[in-house]
Amino acid sequence: MNYSTQQDHVTLVITHSPLPGKTREYEAWLEEIMPMAASFTGHLGVNVIRPREGETAYTILVRFADLDRLYAWIHSPDRQALVAKVSGLLDQGDRFEIRPGAAFWFTPQTKKGPTPAKWKQYLLTLGVIFPSTNFVPWFWGTLLPAGKGTLWGHLLNDASVVALVVFFWMPLVTRLLKNWLIPKGQ
């Protein structure tokens, strides 16, 4: 299947939990793999969300221009070798999923309307995701301290962040900032 006609970027969402005592080695591995990914055609950037105190899971967001280029990176011998290298440092192996770009939050009411500039989409999404990924784990960690660092705790945090972002924050802020996102006359 050819995905090269896709208009929006795609994101590889990777979740890694280093084994106890292996965080420093894992961080060194990240410093090795990130520049390698950046050297691949279509690479648009990477964000590393490090675990909060008392947690272990790292979330790495790697963006590519389209699925073909992302698949080229995923299946490259370079990445395969580095994934094999890190496997002994990880609690649950190399877990990832592929998500389409964030543009679905910014789809105009009418299909004929313009879409916001990518940098505005980025700033708005970061402005919603960053506080959510900091507040939600704190909230659940305070309410349910037994969930900290557990799989069900991560699921609860992730499900809460996604629900807040998709059903509350993005509809609210895109409505409030619609004139900034797409200035009148565009």
Q: What is the structure about, briefly put?
A:
By secondary structure, this protein is an alpha+beta fold. The chain has helices at residues 23-38, 67-74, 77-86, 118-143, 151-176, 178-181, and strands at residues 10-16, 43-49, 58-64, 95-100.
What about the largest sheet?
4 strands, antiparallel
Low-confidence stretches: 1-7, 107-112
Could you tell me the CATH topology label of the largest domain.
Alpha-Beta Plaits
In one word, what is the shape?
flat
CATH arch. level architecture of the largest domain? 2-Layer Sandwich
What is the H-and-E element order? EHEEHHEHHH
Computed CA radius of gyration, to the nearest angstrom? 18 Å
Give the CA-CA distance, first to last residue. Answer: 35 Å
In the CATH hierarchy, what is the class of the largest domain? Alpha Beta
Strand order of the largest sheet: 2-3-1-4
Overall SS class:
alpha+beta
Separate helix tally? 6
Tally of separate domains: 2
Helix content: 40-55%
- Strand percent estimate: 5-15%
Q: For the residues shown, what is the average pLDDT? A: 82
Count of DSSP E strands?
4
Notes on the protein architecture:
With 186 residues, the chain is α+β, with helices and mostly antiparallel strands. The chain has 2 domains: 1-100, Alpha-Beta Plaits, CATH 3.30.70.100; 102-186, no CATH class. The protein has helices spanning 23-38, 67-74, 77-86, 118-143, 151-176, 178-181; strands spanning 10-16, 43-49, 58-64, 95-100. It has a 4-stranded antiparallel sheet with strand order 2-3-1-4. Helix 1 (23-38) packs antiparallel against helix 3 (77-86) and helix 4 packs across helix 5 (151-176). The two termini are 35 Å apart.
